[in-house]
Amino acid sequence: MRKDHGFSWNLSLRVDRPLEGCVLTPHSYMYAKKLDDADITKGISPFAFLSPTSPPEHSFKFTFYKSKKISETCYSRSCPRQGTFSPLEWSRYRIKGGINARNRDALDAVGIICADGRRDCYNQRFCNEDCFVKGWRESKVVPPGTYVKVKHMKEVEVKTNGTSKDNKDKDAASTSSPDSPSTKPVKAPQHLATVDTEEWVKIAETTGEDPTFYPDATCVGHRILLLAESVSVEDGSVLMSRTVKTELCLASPPPPPKRQLVMAKNIGGSGHRFRVVTYNMLAEIYATAQMYPYCDFWALSWDYRFQNLKLELEQTDGDVVCLQEVQSDYFTSHIQPFMSSQGYEGIYKQKTRDAMGMAGKVDGCAMFWRKSKLQCVENYSVSFNELAQRQAASMGLNPRSEEAAQFLNRLKKDNVAQLAVLEFTNVTRTTAGTHNRVCVVNTHFYSNKDHPDIKLWQAWQLAAQVEEFAVSRNLPVLLCGDLNSTPDSAVYDLLGSQSVHPGHPDIAEAKDRVLPDARSITHGINLASAYHTVTGSEPTFTNYTGGFKGTLDYIWYTSENLRPLSTAPIVEEDKILKYGMALPNTQFSSDHILMLADMQLGGQR
């Protein structure tokens, strides 16, 4: 008959690297495991607690401490970490240590300690192998007779295939059979953690209802110790507790480098002037280590990236801001409140697919305008899925037929667009009698590089919507967004020249014929690219990742009633590579480059 050994209670605790101004959220839960003979034989985790019952209902209490001393940085004088806690200098890419990639995080927390008492770097910490080698070369030999001998701990060989003969009797005496009457009661391991107040000072307490903590400037350079306690709801007693120490807290990121505007020729006129910004922010659901393995894990976190994204938006100071890959939950919790605090109003349209996992985990487009300068008088959103349904119906396809299913499956990719008519509120003597309204379009086309025909179809359909909505009323049009199409694409040709050559590869290589004859793919909008007009060409790239470098983002405008005054040049490649192998990195927190143009109502001069 099997003996009932009860349960082992376990408390799991994890917390990410602390960063100034970024939320630090404990991830903690308590669980029970029903014990069997095998568990008793091989031993219980030292963090577990043995009980005849499973844990009662409980809540969590969290206490944050910081180290009393600022943590040591690398001893190597050539290490970028010397004298700074900037995240730009603490990036793994910047350090370029020689340690195996999967061990880098552990090494960053522990480091390498010099154990040679004959060198002046004895007992000093180095952040990685490269720094240790450089530091060793920089170090000096201590004169003989003055160095301190290094005390080495005796190494113990751990055998994995049995025990030594000398220990067999001892092991047998201490581990009798679980079912034997002589089995001694198993003592519960230590399950209540303690904190050494000589080394740590308390800085905050939170609960499970709101466990978050925001490290401030006083935490920079210090390590954080988190104490988690599971508390019985019934009597308030502490059931279990556990501590975890973090890596040292890094400072908030500095502002991005300023981008000097490139001015257009023959600027002037009396129309309203305004600045438009378009930016694919990189949604959290796509910012994964699998997608961007070259970026530090902590630099991929939304809270860190949002600090950088805010700085960019503040610095560019746009009057109209078009954003793509705006995650639904973060639009509500972060982006909309921030933009509101900066004096903007806005609208949001999420993609027409289900969330990825939890509610809110779906991205979309957001458009904002400066309240002191503009007001929205009309807006509506475009669902390309709905446009596909309409086209299938207009083609007479039976909704239940396989042909209709294939057609819709090819075109329905959940992408959306926003259209808004914005009106200038600050009419002056110089702007009186001119246009005081502009239609702004914000969109994000399908991303799959192997489906250019779908992007062309989306561009064609969007142009038709804009033509009906705005051009028919002689409204100036700005079309901004991530079109996921390079300047040699059919999408670019269609928008810039109102038609597509029938022999274009994007049409010729289309596998499923969802497009009509190329001669039918036209529109009547006189569009020009702001960047091409000002600089004579499109940027070399607006998207820069480990697997792709090219231009995907644009600011298009109707040339008969709008003109660009200036554009902000794209960040130079050497500045990107200064902080990482590609985008995103510790300085630039999206895989796209923010684009900016100063515009004026009125046609080309």
From TrEMBL:
It comes from the Eukaryota. Transmembrane segments: none annotated. Residues 278-592 form the Endonuclease/exonuclease/phosphatase domain. This is Endonuclease/exonuclease/phosphatase domain-containing protein. Residues 173-185 have a biased composition (Low complexity). One of its GO terms (molecular function) is 3'-5'-RNA exonuclease activity. Residues 158-192 are annotated as: Disordered. InterPro entries: CCR4/nocturin_mRNA_transcr, Endo/exonu/phosph_ase_sf, Endo/exonuclease/phosphatase. Pfam families: Exo_endo_phos.
